[in-house]
Structure formats: structure tokens, C-alpha cells
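subagent[fold] <- orchestrator: predict structure for attached chain, return C-alpha cells only, no commentary.
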Amino acid sequence: MASSFSDPFAALFALQRALDSRLESNWMSAGTAGRGSYPPINIFQHGDDFVAVIELPGIDKNDIQIEAKESTIRISGKKTINYDAAASMHRRERTWGAFDRTISIPTQIDPNSIRAEYGDGVLALFIPRAESQKPRAIKVS
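subagent[fold] -> orchestrator:
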């Protein structure tokens, strides 16, 4: 890493980039498991409503809890991995344990009308906007 002291901000930004690349390289971790928030979530708007797609592979749908109010949704649960007691572990990259994430929707939602579908390790939440938040057409008299 070459740095110049003629521009101290350039040197600081170069140092920040070098630190970020080291952290992203996964060189300090024991394995190759991914990092970041778990479970990964994508949220998009579909018409007036929202859809959240959450990756939860290997999780029984009975181990997923969903709570919603006003403009937030909390998704929690646990992932279990069972091995035979006599098994000898050679590599452990799959994670297990409890997870808990709360997502915010940029408007009030109707918690009583949220629909959840789970299949092939993917949870889809169909999140309707609250009636009070939907645009209304106003006729001119």
C-alpha cells in the first residue's frame, strides 16, 4: 500500500480501504462461513404492498416466530443441526442456534393481514399497507 502524506485524507481513506478488504477477506475466521446479518432478507414493494423474502434453509417452519405491529416485523427462531452422538466432526461451517431480526417497513402496515408462506428454505411475507396509508382518489365537485 503506497500512501502519500501530501493529502492526509487520501492516506486515511487508503488505510480504511485496506482495513475493509482485510475484514472482508475472512482471513481471521476459523472457517469459510459467511458473515453478516442472519437471516438475509430482501424487501421490495409490489403495488401498494410490500414483500419480504427471508432465507431460512434447514429450519423447520414450526421453529419460526413472526410478530408484527405498526411498521415493524420481528422474525425469530432457531436452527438445529443434529448429529449422531458417535459422529466425529471434521469440518463445521453450517451454523445453528437462535436468530432474531427486526425489519422496518417505511409505512404503517396491517399486521392482521400479513400472509406468510414457507417452502424450500425461503420464507415469503406478504405485507399489506394499512388502509389509512393507502392513497385515495378524491373527486372534484
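orchestrator: received. Logging for downstream: The first strand starts at residue 41 and ends at 46. The beta strands are 41-46, 49-55, 64-69, 72-79, 97-104, 115-119, 122-127.
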